[in-house]
Specification:
Oligomer: single chain
Largest sheet: 7 strands, parallel, barrel
Helix content: 55-70%
Radius of gyration: 31 Å
Strand content: 5-15%
Length: 638
């Protein structure tokens, strides 16, 4: 075995795992200390429910608070909103726009606004106000009016914290933002979530706006899956004062049943570090809409509490402080893993091994130690490729060239033991990736692991080529392996391509394409209704839902492939192990989702491997005869 033959390199890998555990322990502590999830509702929907229930808005907010609501989101109004609602009449003029019908408070807001030049037309002190605003109609319609004072006052009457929904507008300056932030502080606002498709300050004033918000102690609510322009740049500038927001759009709410909607919010908090649940009312047309939505929100709150969360105002994650020594250990651990991968294929002299290791180790440790994103990403990418590849070669190592006389089920227990080793090696890679990238920008999904697609396809291509070249079964000298590869590839190229081989190749290509398309959080292929129902069943039965491609495809194929290798059935081993590699790269990829809590990633991987092992064992027992019918001559790479 490669690990027994290279004990010192294996020890260095173990030290790398200790470095990863050191860093991940600090991340786990930070994640566990941030258990507050804020349930916020939309003021406009609250007002609709209040009207339908013949209750005041403060009374409605108070009853929703009893169900678990912790804040209300109030939309900033613009002049255009007032005109559209028919609350204000507008008449354009040459270089000036006239507004009539404003309340005294609205008129005073525009007169004091830094975004326009507005003059009151003499008239009654109370009652509708008449203003002349410099500028064309298109400009005047975009002028922000701030949060409606009446709405904020009603929230205060219910002792309900306010989340501000601000809009972007042209010509924003630092002095203007200072006034906005100061006003928000006066109104008791702590978190800002931008409205429409742009953040405030997009494009060129993002840094200035973010700096002012940070100086005033405001948090930025970054909407998950949002397409708001400037979101990533604004969130990066605001770090660490960022909270992730999950919301279901009004259009999508119409397609969900109540249990699915509840489960989405609970799972978003548990699995993706969501700390603000922006809850749209489930049913505004019920006979008793207030009671119906109280029950709906209470169910979300109960689901969150059952998973260990508290429903109270959200706060950002504290930065995770990964020690430099831990990153150095991981860098050398990845280098040792790379050397073990090389030695699984090629025998090298001790002087060459250690010269290469020292060189590679110093480079990788030097890239990881400073904590700079590009260096961390490159070392993490290498780990994500090396360890699944090493795992597969370990699974195939030591297999006999001739088939044994015993049936495949006779090798089940040794295959189980080796499968656990394969999964453990892949887990090592995942833990190292997770520890390297445990930084706020990754935990909040502002930045993400680079090379997700390559981390999937790289190990698969590498292992497929190694088996096709006949060099994956056992290590040998460089000259011998080169000659073996040339002979195998020449023989392979001279064979006629049979129909079944074409079919198998096409199936593999489709599987790889699906694997790549479905990788990442926002995959290019949707999920069928059948798969959604299957996932819902798994979510109900298990604390954490494992990945389907792991426990139904990759891990079972890996176990069967290992059993076949141990039994000397080499014909199908390469195909089975390549398919099994889908499960290993998926396992490592689980840890590339840094915005998922590390405890959830570990549980998901362990549950997936355990279920996959069970499925694979069932396949071996079900399709392997109790007695092997004689020895069969097996052609192929030896």
């Amino acid at each position: 075995m490669i690990f027994r033959q290279n004990r010192l390199l294996s020890l260095i890998v173990a030290l790398g795992v200790l470095g990863a555990a050191w860093g991940l322990a600090k991340r786990y502590s930070v994640e566990m200390k941030n258990s507050a999830v804020e349930i916020t509702v939309d003021y406009a929907e609250v007002a609709q429910i209040a009207g339908a229930s013949e209750c005041s808005v403060p009374e409605t907010l108070d009853r929703l608070k009893q169900s678990g609501v912790t804040s209300v989101a109030i939309q900033e109004k613009t002049v255009g909103d007032l005109v559209t609602a028919g609350a204000v009449m507008m008449r354009p003029g040459p270089g000036v726009t006239w507004l009539y019908g404003l309340t005294p408070n609205q008129a005073d807001t525009l007169v004091r606004s830094p975004f326009c030049v507005a003059t009151k037309v003499p008239g009654p002190i109370s009652g509708p106000q008449f203003l002349a605003i410099s500028g064309e109609t298109e400009f005047v319609l975009t002028i922000p009016m701030g949060l409606p004072k009446e709405d904020v006052d009603e929230a205060k009457q219910a002792d309900m914290p306010v989340i501000a929904r601000l809009v972007n507008h042209p010509g924003v300056r630092k002095a203007d933002v200072e006034k906005i932030a100061s006003k928000l502080q006066q109104e008791g606002v702590k978190t800002v979530i931008f409205s429409a498709d742009q953040v405030l300050g997009f494009r060129d004033a993002i840094d200035e706006v973010a700096d002012v918000f940070k100086a005033h102690g405001l948090y930025y609510g970054s909407i998950e899956f949002s397409k708001q322009k400037g979101d990533q740049k604004f969130a990066t500038r605001m770090l660490p004062d960022v909270v992730r927001v999950h919301s279901v759009s009004v259009a999508e709410m119409g397609t969900l049943d109540r249990p699915s909607a509840i489960e989405r919010f609970v799972r978003a908090a548990k699995e993706r570090n969501i700390r603000v649940a922006y809850v749209r009312m489930f049913d505004l047309a019920a006979s008793n809409p207030l009671r119906s939505n109280q029950d709906y929100i209470a169910s979300i709150a109960r689901g969150l509490r059952s998973d260990g969360f508290e429903t109270r105002p959200a706060h950002p994650f504290k930065p995770v402080s990964i020690p430099i020594a831990a990153r150095v250990l991981i860098g050398f651990g990845v280098a040792a893993g790379l050397m073990l991968l090389i030695l699984s294929l090629v025998k090298l002299r001790a002087s060459t091994i250690w010269s290469l290791f020292i060189l590679i180790g110093l480079v990788l440790a030097g890239m990881a130690a400073p904590g700079v994103d590009i260096g961390l990403k490159l070392v993490a990418l290498l780990a994500a490729i090396v360890f699944p590849s090493l795992a597969v070669l370990y699974g195939a190592s030591g297999s006999p060239e001739a088939p044994a006389s015993r049936p495949l089920r006779a090798f089940l227990w040794p295959a189980v033991v080796r499968f656990i080793g394969v999964a453990a090696i892949s887990l090592v890679g995942g833990l190292m990736v997770a520890a390297l990238l445990s930084k706020p920008e990754f935990m909040l999904h502002i930045d993400q692991f680079a090379g997700v697609k390559f981390a999937h396809i790289g190990p698969i291509l590498f292992i497929a080529i190694a088996f096709a070249a006949g060099i994956a079964w056992r290590p040998d000298g460089w000259s011998a392996q080169r000659a073996r590869a040339a002979e195998c590839l020449r023989t392979l190229g001279g064979r006629p391509i049979l129909m079944w081989q074409t079919v198998v190749a096409l199936i593999l290509l489709v599987m790889v394409a699906l694997l790549l398309a479905r990788s990442g959080n926002e995959s290019g292929i949707g999920v069928s209704q059948m798969e959604l129902r299957f996932r819902a069943i798994l979510d109900t039965l298990l604390f954490v839902r494992p990945r389907t491609k792991e426990f139904l495809l990759g891990h079972p194929a890996m176990l069967v492939g290992i059993a076949a290798a141990l039994g000397g059935r080499r014909n199908w081993v390469p195909l089975l192990l390549v398919v099994g590699l889908f499960g290993e790269v998926s396992l490592v990829n689980t840890f590339c989702h840094i915005h998922t809590q590390i405890s959830v990633s570990i549980l998901r991987s362990v549950i997936g491997a355990a279920l996959g092992l069970i499925v694979g064992a069932i396949l071996i027992v079900a399709f392997s005869p109790r007695k092997h019918k004689g020895r069969q001559q097996v052609t192929g790479d030896r």
